[in-house]
Amino acid sequence: MMANDGATIRSRQEPSPDAGAESPQWPRPVYGWYVVGVLLLAYTLSFVDRMILSLLVAPIRAALDISDTEVSLLIGLAFALFYTLLGLPLAWIADRWNRRNLILVGVALWSVMTAGCGFAGSYATLFLARMGVGVGEAALSPAAYSMLSDTFPRDRLARALAVYSIGVPLGSGVAMILGAFVVQAVLAAPMVDLPFVGPVEAWRTIFLWVAAPGLLVCLLLLTVREPLRQGRRQAAAHADEPPAPGFLAHLVRQRAALGALFVGMALIGLVMYGVIAWVPTFFFRTYGMEVSRAGLWFGVIMAIGGAAGLVLGGTLADRMFGKGVADAHLRVMRLSILLGGPPLLAAALMPDAVLAFAMLAIAFPMLTMHGVGTVALQLITPNEYRARVTALYFFIVNLTGLGFGPMLMALLTDQLFGDDAALRYSIALVTGVAMPLAAIILTVGFRAFARELAKMSDGA
């Protein structure tokens, strides 16, 4: 079943005896990709909603009289705290109830709360509104990954989840690109008259515009069916076990493989979320470039390069896995760090803006290949735990990356260097430490992951 080094297995296993006569009926490919498209749109909008604030640093600081660190809390921790904490109970619901409906409610909630950010009259109320955005978005990915794992067979799952994950760079890129033009409009017309409200600062209306498309996504979700949960017969053999102890026992059994995935991805997220949050401001402070212009070019790099990297990573992982490389997904993740980490670090230290953008254009397609880590989770997780394991993964990765990545870079700038212009060195320092650690930890997890995949393939 496995090679002597524990690195390979047969990629397409026959059903185990425990599966009995089970023969999963997968949806038609055309419909499956339609589901991917709808979920991709939702994921893209979620990132537009959460990332648009990073282009509004200057007007928000001026309006609320706050520091870089306080802004970083709005960008990161205010959102990530509830996004991560509520992800677990919402995933418990997703493992038991209609996942499509759960996602629909989540999209509606985060859209309303994003609009609410525009009406926040103080730092505290804006902080609370950002928490509300996190609550809504917590419903999406655990349920979406579970749905797609029941829509595509595992030898095509990496590509499907890679396309869904394009929502991360695409949404962030769209936020930067649209934000570039919107910020220019804000500077040209600082006040806007809203019906029934009166004159308000123009930056507040941006939240209303980015929240509106959520209504369209809600309508599209009504055309998606809740998929049949694959593999339930095997799970039924353990139906008499209490759900919580079974889930905890699963985590303990897979602690080595899951630990490598969780910690490795958390360190990557620490860098990626920090960079995405601060790059437009970095170009302004280091090279004197307008934030809107920097956001435009960075948005193009993220949208195109990030999407290409995710598809490349998913395709490469599927091919390696199809050839019997059991730890293919972890190897692709490590490769993304080795190829993308050095140019990302170099970008922060370039002598001019053109070279910095060139380094980012090289780094992002490579770094986003690490998105196949979420596929690795699905391959070693039983159906009845998929949403919860995915939520736990997002809890750790996002609390570390989104919650502390922007804040760590801000704290280093404020407290270690004590100079706004030193933001470039904060980015370089975090990248230079976290990326090599992530590569090492993922490498250590290769064998443990291959063992767990073999057990899943054997029906253990």
TrEMBL record:
Domain Major facilitator superfamily (MFS) profile: start-end pairs? 35-451
Q: Where is this region: Disordered?
A: 1-23
One of the entry's Gene Ontology molecular-function terms is:
transmembrane transporter activity
User: What keywords tag this UniProt record?
Assistant: Membrane, Transmembrane, Transmembrane helix, Transport
Q: Which GO terms describe its cellular component?
A: membrane
Q: Where in the cell is it found?
A: Membrane
Has UniProt tagged this entry with the keyword Transport? yes
Q: Where are the transmembrane segments?
A: 31-53, 73-94, 101-121, 127-148, 160-186, 206-224, 256-276, 296-316, 328-349, 355-380, 392-413, 425-446
Tell me what topology the record assigns in the membrane. Answer: Multi-pass membrane protein
Main localisation: membrane
Its recorded name reads: MFS transporter
